[in-house]
Amino acid sequence: MPLATTRRAGLVDQVIEQLRDAVTQGEWPIGQRIPTEPELAGQLGVGRNTVREAVRALAHTGLLEVRQGDGTYVRATSEVSGAIRRLCGSELREVLQVRRILEVEGARLAARSRTEDEVTGLRSLLERRNVELRERRWEDFARLDAEFHFAVVQSGHNTLLTEMYRGLTEVITASVAATSNVTPGGEYLPEIGHEGLAEAIADGDADRAASEACGFLDELLARVEQDESA
Fold first, then answer.
1. Closest Cα partner for 72 from 59, 61, 82?
2. Which residues are CB-neighbours of 100 under 8 A, at least 6 positions away?
3. pLDDT at 59
4. Comparing 54-58, 102-106, 170-174, which segment has the lowest mean pLDDT?
5. With 0-12 CB in 10 A as exposed, 13-18 as middle and 19+ as buried, what is 80?
6. For 94-143, what is each residue's pLDDT tens digit?
7. What is the pTM of this model?
8. Which of 119, 116, 35 is CA-nearest to residue 71?
9. Where residue 186 falls among pLDDT bands split at 50, 70, 90?
10. DSSP string, 169-221
11. Cα gap 140→177, rounded to integer Å
12. Is 189 a residue whose pLDDT tops 70?
């Protein structure tokens, strides 16, 4: 896919999108050094500062890695996989701890405030998530699992909590993928289901919903802490 000259509006976003496409579509495979800053600026018809800002943004998401004095290399094929590469050990544990703080209260509020349409939406997301899990499509599974948890928080109708949770979308999705029931070596771990959480919310049982949310996050934390001590 040849790079195209950009329009003048929103230059950085346009450059980010073109560079992301080059990575995700395989034009630049993992481990390859991408064209230099002057080369990209010439191909895209933008200034070097624009290219530099776009590369910095993609390096922040984990797609690219800037090696001082050597160049910029492709590190991952998607933001999710890039985030997973960065999210491990104590960082992963901290994300799960923050998720527990937000999601337990989010589940409690959801059980008290959810609408029937929201219950239907939760069940639909859960069903789609489980299909991706059975088919072992891990990236789609992680995305849908994160969407389910966001929908739970959203069902609590607390705007501030929802926006706080929305701001953590990337690391939450990465934490789901990093703690999914398959290890890098292919070993399967016991599945952590969310049917109990969805049903507690549907039943309007706030204490049970909070307990369900706390339970699976405690289990994930135990796994991470066990890995850290191994």
1. 59
2. 213, 214, 217, 218, 221
3. 87
4. 170-174
5. buried
6. 889 999 999 999 999 999 999 999 999 999 999 999 999 888 888 788 88
7. 0.64
8. 35
9. very low
10. HHHHHHHHHHTSSB-TTS-B------HHHHHHHHHT-HHHHHHHHHHHHHHHH
11. 9
12. no
Closest CA to 84 of 97, 74, 75, 71: 75
How is residue 165 written in tokens?
Answer: 């949770």
